[in-house]
Amino acid sequence: MAERGDSLEVFIKRTDNAKDLPIPSYMSIQAAGMDLYANIESSILIKPGKFKTIPTGITIALPEGYEAQIRPRSGLAMKYGITVLNGPGTVDADYRGEINIILINFGKQDFKINRGDRIAQMVINKFEQVNMVEVDELPESSRGQKGFGSTGI
Prior knowledge:
This protein is mainly β and about 150 residues long. Helix content is about 5%, strand content about 35%. It has one helix at about 75-80, and strands at about 5, 5-10, 10-15, 25, 35, 45, 50-55, 60, 65-70, 80-85, 90, 100-105, 110-115, 120-125. A 5-stranded antiparallel sheet has the order 4-5-14-9-11, with no helix packed on it. It has a 3-stranded antiparallel sheet with strand order 7-12-10. A two-stranded antiparallel sheet has the order 1-2. Strand 1 (about 5) and strand 2 form a beta hairpin. The radius of gyration is 19 Å and the shape is globular. The termini are far apart. The mean pLDDT is about 95.
């Protein structure tokens, strides 16, 4: 894993039963997310209000200081009410297991997933770990404790 120009290399390995599926890829030149594919042997039905865990058939090795966020596909959300239940899900740099996606059906109709369907997207992000320092008082700010909706609609 090394940075080449503007491109970060991430190692990927397909599981034995996913060799026929594409590896994640960007669907447009400036896309932030790479599509992930359903690695299932037979179709899976998700009924309204229910969720299922769908394997992707890939494992990855991210560089230290990076994470992969698993996000919904906007078309599935808009057209069918399908989203990632724990979205965004996080894949840590030290995780080496198969990436699985928890999909939930918020729609009104059953939703069928077939092998190779694009089910979610993965965005790679750099992050910082911080040291938490406990204090008796926090510094003042102009916003203070104003929370939900405090800045308007």
